[in-house]
Amino acid sequence: MEYIKDPFEIEKKSFEIITQELGEKTFPEKEGKIIKRVIHTTADFQYADITKISGDAISSSHDALRQGCKIYTDTKMAMSGINKRTLKALNSEIYCLVDDPQVVKEAKERGLTRSMVAMEKAVADKDTKIFVIGNAPTALFQLCQYIDEKRIHPHLVVGVPVGFVGAKESKEALLERDVPYITTVGRKGGSTVAAAIINALLYMMN
Amino acid sequence: MEYIKDPFEIEKKSFEIITQELGEKTFPEKEGKIIKRVIHTTADFQYADITKISGDAISSSHDALRQGCKIYTDTKMAMSGINKRTLKALNSEIYCLVDDPQVVKEAKERGLTRSMVAMEKAVADKDTKIFVIGNAPTALFQLCQYIDEKRIHPHLVVGVPVGFVGAKESKEALLERDVPYITTVGRKGGSTVAAAIINALLYMMN
């Protein structure tokens, strides 16, 4: 079997194919890098239409990362897909609390999702400037409420929950808040999309 | 903001919506559980058409899991999305070698992807009976070659690489092998799809 084996060659060729198939659908340079990386990770061109990036999202998140910050995510899969070496070089880090024993216990007692209880704790940590919600609509709703209550004003919210119950609505709630955001309207999204967005933001800082 | 907060209620409602929207598109019970969980994790109904499950895939993988086995995956994201508690209860485990220092070193020296070198090592471990390729077409091509060489006869290959260079072709190669498989024809797939397939297989054993 003959096939391309060099990973750099594979990625380069992939982005060429994506650009070509997008055809007349073009984007500003930095936004394009995010959208193309999402398509690269999903092979789903619908993301060209549903990915929404607020005007201040890239500059605001880059400011936070340049100063060094914590990124909170509601999903271990997103965390494991994000380039930790690049993050560390920026003196930044990512964490997730949904498996934290205290969070698991409280969620059960209060009849809430673990993601919601974990979000409560993340918002209380003032070094957390970027929030990455790839899984739980409940976590994104919760974060929107904290923004309304002025308990937090994030440098960026990546709000891309996937699914059939609440995902779409939670992203609509995010779009109504005055906060830098990257989201995918409708049902689609998920942890690979979340990781691709953060990685794209990191790679364009090099 | 009013929304459903109970995670079990959310999942139940989600599967009801999926079943309803699939309409006349029905599947045998066990296959349906896999396909619906993939749709649940992607919000993409195209998976109803592109997910292919060989006739022996479910029974063969359940045999291996009941006896206790190792599952090898080429992606840390898939590993982190798979229910480890359920696996452990079955006396089974999952591992990934792409970050193994020896693998990283060899891949650089030999000009191969880390996934390929890691696959070489996984195939040499005779307790590894299930292979989950969610990322690298090169790893799936490599595995097909080892099957041809009769170095391994897996109980199941979940072959769902995503992307634009080699993914489609690597899945076509898998379909041509006489081995229990679950795959998604074409470009789509990825680590969330891989994890959803394994989790569906585990949950139906309860």
Automatic annotation (TrEMBL), chains A, B:
Keywords in alphabetical order: Cobalamin biosynthesis, Isomerase
Matching InterPro entries: Cbl_synth_CobH/CbiC (IPR003722), CobH/CbiC_sf (IPR036588)
GO molecular function: precorrin-8X methylmutase activity
Taxonomy, superkingdom: Bacteria
Keyword Hydrolase: no
Pathway: Cofactor biosynthesis; adenosylcobalamin biosynthesis
Keyword field contains Isomerase: yes
Gene3D superfamilies listed in its UniProt record: Cobalamin biosynthesis CobH/CbiC, precorrin-8X methylmutase
A Gene Ontology BP annotation from the UniProt entry: cobalamin biosynthetic process
Domain Cobalamin biosynthesis precorrin-8X methylmutase CobH/CbiC: start-end pairs: 9-204
Family statement: Belongs to the CobH/CbiC family.
Protein name as catalogued: Precorrin-8X methylmutase
Source species of the chain: Natronincola ferrireducens
Taxonomic lineage from the root: Bacteria, Bacillati, Bacillota, Clostridia, Peptostreptococcales
